[in-house]
Design the sequence.
């Protein structure tokens, strides 16, 4: 963890002016499953805007989201006077017609960041991750209220490319003070065809599971049939009367030739009750 911390501090020195920086996907060290079907975790713009000098006053960072489209390569997130846009997810059709504001948070001063060493402590981990990361698409509560006007950060669409931008707002003027570039397109995950069955060990598909279970029960039925045949053959042997053998041959001859031309005995087996079937087999055994 301390090596990571050093790397992050080094990153702070590197970053320099905010203008030519882009929002970045959260490091794999923090979030393993990212992006998901509906969320994208990003690193917060720490030490970006206040890297050269500490900012005086109150600042907030706004996060804007835009669904990727060639016509919005350089979409603006402020009006002509420099006031940041307050367009919502709903107004922009989830970022498809214009950027929407998905999150706002206070700017944590670069000199005052919590140590990542404490992230191993379960009680502090979530708070520390919230300091470093923001998750787009994490809160769908605003969708249930059609008249909701506030900040709305509902789930993103699967298999869709999005771009992100951070904006620094001077809260005493309410104007945009600085901003990052739009990020490179980041694609949410795609729903895979078998993802519902992926939890099964060995990732077997539905068809494979059916075949496996049929094959698994087949030997059982064969064994059952064989055991029954042997049992009945003992019963027949015990009887001195040979009439049963004759009966089954009569049944066999009564079957029309067209049905049982190749396998006449099978045809009679299929038509007769289960006991007759056993008798046919037993007669063959006796022969
Ligand atoms: C993008 O917009 C910014 C400010 O709105 C402008 O300075 C820059 O030249 C634009 N870039 C392109 C490629 O249009
Ligand atoms: C989700 O959004 C609603 C409305 O914006 C807010 O009141 C609530 O605190 C948010 N929940 C979380 C867990 O952030
Ligand atoms: C933010 O706005 C206040 C009030 O207008 C101003 O005094 C301050 O210099 C601004 N911050 C920066 C970094 O320009």
Sequence:
């Amino acid at each position: 963890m301390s090596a990571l911390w050093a790397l992050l501090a080094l990153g702070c020195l590197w970053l320099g002016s905010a203008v030519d920086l882009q929002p970045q996907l959260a490091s794999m060290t923090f979030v393993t499953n990212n992006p998901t079907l509906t969320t994208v975790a990003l690193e917060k713009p720490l030490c970006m805007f206040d890297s050269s000098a500490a900012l005086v006053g109150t600042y907030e960072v706004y996060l804007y989201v835009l669904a990727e489209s060639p016509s919005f390569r350089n979409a603006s997130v402020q009006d002509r006077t420099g006031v940041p846009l307050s367009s919502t997810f709903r107004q922009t059709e989830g970022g498809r017609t214009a950027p929407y504001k998905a999150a706002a948070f206070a700017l944590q001063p670069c000199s005052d960041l919590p140590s990542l060493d404490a992230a191993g402590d379960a009680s502090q981990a979530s708070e520390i991750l919230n300091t470093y990361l923001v998750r787009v698409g994490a809160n769908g509560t605003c969708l249930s209220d059609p008249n909701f006007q506030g900040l709305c950060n509902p789930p993103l669409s699967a298999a869709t490319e999005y771009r992100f931008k951070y904006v620094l707002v001077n809260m005493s003027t309410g104007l945009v003070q600085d901003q990052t570039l739009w990020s490179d397109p980041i694609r949410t995950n795609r729903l895979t065809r078998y993802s519902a069955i992926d939890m099964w060990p060995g990732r077997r598909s539905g068809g494979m599971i059916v075949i496996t279970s049929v094959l698994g029960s087949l030997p059982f039925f064969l064994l059952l049939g064989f055991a029954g045949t042997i049992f009945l053959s003992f019963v027949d042997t015990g009887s001195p009367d040979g009439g049963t053998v004759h009966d089954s041959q009569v049944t066999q001859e009564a079957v029309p030739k067209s049905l049982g031309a190749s396998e006449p005995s099978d045809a009679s087996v299929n038509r007769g009750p289960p006991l007759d079937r056993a008798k046919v087999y037993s007669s063959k055994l006796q022969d």
Q: What stands out?
A: DSSP finds seven helices and seven strands in the chain. Residues 139, 141-142, 150-151 surround 2-acetamido-2-deoxy-beta-D-glucopyranose (ligand 2) (CB under 6 Å).
